[in-house]
Amino acid sequence: MAQTHEDLVVDLKSVSKHFGGQVILDAVDLQIRRGEFVVLLGASGSGKTTLLRMLSSLDHANSGEVRVTDSSTVVFQEPRLAPFHRVWRNVLMGLKGDQRNKAKALAALDEVGLAEKAFSWPKRLSGGEAQRVALARALVRTPRLLLADEPFAALDALTRIRMQWLVQALWREHTPAVLLVTHDVEEAVLLADRILILKEGRLAVDIQVEVQRPRRAGEAFAQLTEYLLGELGVSKEGDPLNSAVPHRPGSPAVSSQAVA
User: Is position 34 within any domain?
Assistant: First the structure.
Protein backbone atom coordinates (compact mmCIF):
# COMPACT_ATOMS: atom_id res chain seq x y z
CA MET A 1 0.00 0.00 0.00
CA ALA A 2 1.34 3.41 -0.97
CA GLN A 3 2.28 5.77 1.84
CA THR A 4 0.57 9.16 1.92
CA HIS A 5 1.37 12.49 3.53
CA GLU A 6 -1.25 11.68 6.18
CA ASP A 7 0.98 8.79 7.32
CA LEU A 8 3.66 11.25 8.44
CA VAL A 9 3.94 11.90 12.18
CA VAL A 10 7.28 13.73 11.86
CA ASP A 11 8.32 15.90 8.95
CA LEU A 12 11.49 17.99 9.34
CA LYS A 13 12.91 20.04 6.49
CA SER A 14 16.34 21.74 6.71
CA VAL A 15 16.04 22.10 10.48
CA SER A 16 18.95 23.80 12.23
CA LYS A 17 19.63 24.69 15.84
CA HIS A 18 22.52 26.57 17.41
CA PHE A 19 23.46 27.88 20.82
CA GLY A 20 25.62 30.94 20.49
CA GLY A 21 28.20 30.05 17.88
CA GLN A 22 27.86 26.27 18.33
CA VAL A 23 25.85 24.36 15.73
CA ILE A 24 23.80 21.58 17.37
CA LEU A 25 21.62 20.51 14.43
CA ASP A 26 22.64 21.30 10.87
CA ALA A 27 20.01 21.23 8.10
CA VAL A 28 18.33 18.02 9.30
CA ASP A 29 15.72 16.40 7.04
CA LEU A 30 13.70 13.63 8.68
CA GLN A 31 10.39 11.91 8.06
CA ILE A 32 8.83 9.29 10.33
CA ARG A 33 5.65 7.49 9.36
CA ARG A 34 2.98 6.01 11.56
CA GLY A 35 3.87 2.60 12.96
CA GLU A 36 7.62 2.95 12.32
CA PHE A 37 10.03 2.01 15.12
CA VAL A 38 13.01 4.33 14.68
CA VAL A 39 16.12 4.34 16.87
CA LEU A 40 18.49 7.30 17.02
CA LEU A 41 22.18 6.71 17.79
CA GLY A 42 25.06 9.12 18.13
CA ALA A 43 27.96 10.11 20.35
CA SER A 44 27.43 12.45 23.27
CA GLY A 45 26.99 15.99 21.98
CA SER A 46 25.85 14.91 18.52
CA GLY A 47 22.43 16.56 18.93
CA LYS A 48 20.21 13.58 19.85
CA THR A 49 18.57 15.10 22.92
CA THR A 50 18.14 18.47 21.21
CA LEU A 51 16.33 16.78 18.33
CA LEU A 52 14.06 14.89 20.71
CA ARG A 53 13.31 18.05 22.70
CA MET A 54 12.40 19.81 19.47
CA LEU A 55 9.99 17.04 18.50
CA SER A 56 8.38 17.21 21.94
CA SER A 57 8.01 21.02 21.71
CA LEU A 58 10.45 21.57 24.59
CA ASP A 59 12.83 23.39 22.24
CA HIS A 60 12.56 25.24 18.95
CA ALA A 61 14.51 25.35 15.71
CA ASN A 62 16.43 28.44 14.64
CA SER A 63 15.57 27.70 11.02
CA GLY A 64 13.79 25.13 8.91
CA GLU A 65 10.34 23.57 9.06
CA VAL A 66 9.15 21.32 11.91
CA ARG A 67 5.89 19.41 11.62
CA VAL A 68 4.98 16.89 14.32
CA THR A 69 1.67 15.18 15.07
CA ASP A 70 -0.24 16.77 17.92
CA SER A 71 -0.74 13.28 19.36
CA SER A 72 2.63 12.55 20.94
CA THR A 73 4.08 11.77 24.34
CA VAL A 74 7.53 11.35 25.90
CA VAL A 75 9.15 8.73 28.11
CA PHE A 76 12.29 10.12 29.76
CA GLN A 77 15.34 8.38 31.20
CA GLU A 78 13.91 9.05 34.68
CA PRO A 79 10.30 7.95 35.31
CA ARG A 80 9.41 11.38 36.76
CA LEU A 81 6.70 10.08 39.08
CA ALA A 82 5.05 12.36 41.63
CA PRO A 83 5.77 10.81 45.07
CA PHE A 84 2.60 12.24 46.61
CA HIS A 85 0.27 10.47 44.14
CA ARG A 86 -0.65 6.79 44.00
CA VAL A 87 0.63 4.88 40.99
CA TRP A 88 -2.65 5.02 39.07
CA ARG A 89 -2.85 8.79 39.51
CA ASN A 90 0.70 9.10 38.18
CA VAL A 91 -0.49 7.34 35.04
CA LEU A 92 -3.13 10.03 34.62
CA MET A 93 -0.80 12.94 35.35
CA GLY A 94 -2.22 15.94 33.48
CA LEU A 95 -5.52 14.18 32.73
CA LYS A 96 -8.79 14.15 34.65
CA GLY A 97 -8.93 11.55 37.41
CA ASP A 98 -12.54 10.60 36.72
CA GLN A 99 -13.82 7.03 36.74
CA ARG A 100 -13.50 6.62 32.96
CA ASN A 101 -9.87 7.69 32.96
CA LYS A 102 -9.17 5.71 36.12
CA ALA A 103 -10.37 2.59 34.30
CA LYS A 104 -8.01 3.43 31.41
CA ALA A 105 -5.12 3.88 33.86
CA LEU A 106 -5.80 0.53 35.51
CA ALA A 107 -5.98 -1.15 32.09
CA ALA A 108 -2.67 0.43 31.04
CA LEU A 109 -1.03 -0.73 34.27
CA ASP A 110 -2.34 -4.22 33.62
CA GLU A 111 -0.75 -4.13 30.15
CA VAL A 112 2.67 -3.36 31.63
CA GLY A 113 2.27 -6.02 34.33
CA LEU A 114 1.63 -3.69 37.27
CA ALA A 115 -2.06 -4.17 38.02
CA GLU A 116 -1.27 -5.15 41.60
CA LYS A 117 0.74 -1.93 42.11
CA ALA A 118 -2.00 0.49 41.03
CA PHE A 119 -2.69 1.80 44.53
CA SER A 120 0.92 1.72 45.76
CA TRP A 121 3.07 4.77 46.39
CA PRO A 122 5.92 5.35 43.89
CA LYS A 123 8.57 4.93 46.60
CA ARG A 124 7.49 1.26 46.86
CA LEU A 125 8.44 0.58 43.24
CA SER A 126 11.71 -0.75 41.85
CA GLY A 127 13.45 1.17 39.08
CA GLY A 128 12.03 -1.13 36.42
CA GLU A 129 8.53 -0.90 37.87
CA ALA A 130 8.72 2.90 37.94
CA GLN A 131 9.72 2.95 34.28
CA ARG A 132 6.81 0.66 33.45
CA VAL A 133 4.51 3.20 35.10
CA ALA A 134 6.02 5.83 32.80
CA LEU A 135 5.20 3.58 29.82
CA ALA A 136 1.64 3.14 31.07
CA ARG A 137 1.35 6.93 31.36
CA ALA A 138 2.36 7.18 27.69
CA LEU A 139 -0.02 4.40 26.60
CA VAL A 140 -3.08 5.84 28.30
CA ARG A 141 -2.83 8.84 25.96
CA THR A 142 -2.94 6.58 22.86
CA PRO A 143 -0.26 8.63 21.06
CA ARG A 144 0.48 8.46 17.35
CA LEU A 145 4.12 9.22 18.23
CA LEU A 146 6.04 7.93 21.25
CA LEU A 147 9.33 9.71 21.96
CA ALA A 148 11.73 7.90 24.32
CA ASP A 149 14.95 9.44 25.62
CA GLU A 150 17.20 6.58 26.79
CA PRO A 151 14.36 5.08 28.85
CA PHE A 152 16.35 1.98 29.91
CA ALA A 153 19.70 3.61 30.65
CA ALA A 154 19.37 3.53 34.45
CA LEU A 155 18.14 -0.06 34.65
CA ASP A 156 20.14 -3.18 35.48
CA ALA A 157 20.91 -5.59 32.63
CA LEU A 158 18.12 -8.11 33.27
CA THR A 159 15.46 -5.44 33.83
CA ARG A 160 16.61 -3.68 30.68
CA ILE A 161 16.09 -6.85 28.63
CA ARG A 162 12.59 -7.28 30.06
CA MET A 163 11.77 -3.66 29.25
CA GLN A 164 13.01 -4.04 25.68
CA TRP A 165 10.68 -6.97 25.08
CA LEU A 166 7.81 -5.15 26.79
CA VAL A 167 8.25 -2.09 24.59
CA GLN A 168 8.23 -4.28 21.49
CA ALA A 169 5.02 -6.00 22.61
CA LEU A 170 3.31 -2.69 23.37
CA TRP A 171 4.44 -1.21 20.04
CA ARG A 172 2.99 -4.19 18.15
CA GLU A 173 -0.27 -3.90 20.07
CA HIS A 174 -0.79 -0.12 19.85
CA THR A 175 1.20 0.66 16.65
CA PRO A 176 2.42 4.18 17.44
CA ALA A 177 5.44 5.52 15.63
CA VAL A 178 8.40 5.34 18.03
CA LEU A 179 11.57 7.40 18.11
CA LEU A 180 13.91 6.00 20.74
CA VAL A 181 17.25 7.57 21.63
CA THR A 182 19.90 5.19 22.94
CA HIS A 183 23.65 4.69 23.14
CA ASP A 184 23.22 0.90 22.98
CA VAL A 185 23.86 -0.38 19.45
CA GLU A 186 22.60 -3.91 20.14
CA GLU A 187 19.41 -2.44 21.61
CA ALA A 188 18.96 -0.49 18.38
CA VAL A 189 19.36 -3.62 16.26
CA LEU A 190 16.97 -5.57 18.50
CA LEU A 191 14.17 -3.01 18.39
CA ALA A 192 14.32 -0.86 15.26
CA ASP A 193 12.73 -0.94 11.84
CA ARG A 194 15.06 1.91 10.99
CA ILE A 195 18.24 3.28 12.57
CA LEU A 196 19.55 6.83 12.35
CA ILE A 197 23.00 8.08 13.34
CA LEU A 198 23.63 11.75 14.13
CA LYS A 199 27.16 13.00 13.62
CA GLU A 200 28.02 16.59 14.47
CA GLY A 201 24.42 17.66 14.10
CA ARG A 202 23.79 15.96 10.75
CA LEU A 203 21.96 12.74 9.94
CA ALA A 204 24.92 10.79 8.58
CA VAL A 205 23.25 7.36 8.39
CA ASP A 206 19.64 6.33 7.78
CA ILE A 207 19.17 2.58 7.35
CA GLN A 208 16.33 0.10 7.20
CA VAL A 209 16.86 -2.97 9.38
CA GLU A 210 16.22 -6.18 7.48
CA VAL A 211 16.99 -8.69 10.23
CA GLN A 212 13.90 -10.87 10.60
CA ARG A 213 11.84 -10.54 13.79
CA PRO A 214 11.93 -11.91 16.45
CA ARG A 215 15.64 -11.08 16.50
CA ARG A 216 18.28 -13.30 18.04
CA ALA A 217 22.06 -13.24 18.05
CA GLY A 218 23.36 -14.52 14.76
CA GLU A 219 25.43 -13.57 11.72
CA ALA A 220 23.05 -10.94 10.36
CA PHE A 221 22.56 -9.38 13.81
CA ALA A 222 26.32 -9.31 14.43
CA GLN A 223 27.06 -7.92 10.97
CA LEU A 224 24.68 -5.00 11.42
CA THR A 225 25.97 -4.33 14.94
CA GLU A 226 29.55 -4.21 13.63
CA TYR A 227 28.55 -1.87 10.82
CA LEU A 228 26.84 0.56 13.21
CA LEU A 229 29.72 0.48 15.68
CA GLY A 230 32.02 1.30 12.81
CA GLU A 231 29.87 4.27 11.83
CA LEU A 232 30.09 5.42 15.45
CA GLY A 233 33.87 5.08 15.39
CA VAL A 234 34.40 2.00 17.58
CA SER A 235 34.87 -1.70 17.05
CA LYS A 236 32.73 -4.31 18.80
CA GLU A 237 35.57 -4.76 21.28
CA GLY A 238 35.52 -1.02 22.02
CA ASP A 239 38.71 -0.07 20.14
CA PRO A 240 38.65 3.16 18.11
CA LEU A 241 38.54 2.70 14.37
CA ASN A 242 40.25 4.99 11.91
CA SER A 243 37.38 4.57 9.49
CA ALA A 244 33.88 3.17 9.48
CA VAL A 245 33.30 -0.49 8.77
CA PRO A 246 32.55 -0.58 5.04
CA HIS A 247 29.02 -1.54 4.14
CA ARG A 248 28.67 -4.35 1.67
CA PRO A 249 25.75 -3.70 -0.67
CA GLY A 250 23.24 -6.54 -0.63
CA SER A 251 23.90 -7.44 2.99
CA PRO A 252 21.01 -9.44 4.49
CA ALA A 253 21.17 -7.30 7.59
CA VAL A 254 20.83 -3.76 6.36
CA SER A 255 19.69 -1.56 3.53
CA SER A 256 21.97 1.45 3.74
CA GLN A 257 20.94 4.98 2.86
CA ALA A 258 23.93 6.87 4.25
CA VAL A 259 23.49 10.60 3.95
CA ALA A 260 26.44 12.53 2.62
Answer: yes
Give the Cα separation of 97 and 88 in Å (integer).
Answer: 9
Same domain, 113 and 57: no
Domain count within the chain = 2
Amino acid 236: pLDDT? 54
* Cα 132 off chain centre by: 15
Write the pLDDT tens digit of every residue in 121-162. Answer: 999 999 999 999 999 999 999 999 999 999 998 899 999 999
Contacts of 202 (CB under 8 A, 6+ apart): 26, 27, 28, 259
Among 124, 127, 129, CA closest to 109: 129
Neighbours of 214 (CB within 10 A): 8
Q: Which of 179, 258, 173, 189 is nearest to 225 (CA)?
A: 189
Q: Count other Cβ atoms within 10 Å, centred on residue 169.
A: 12
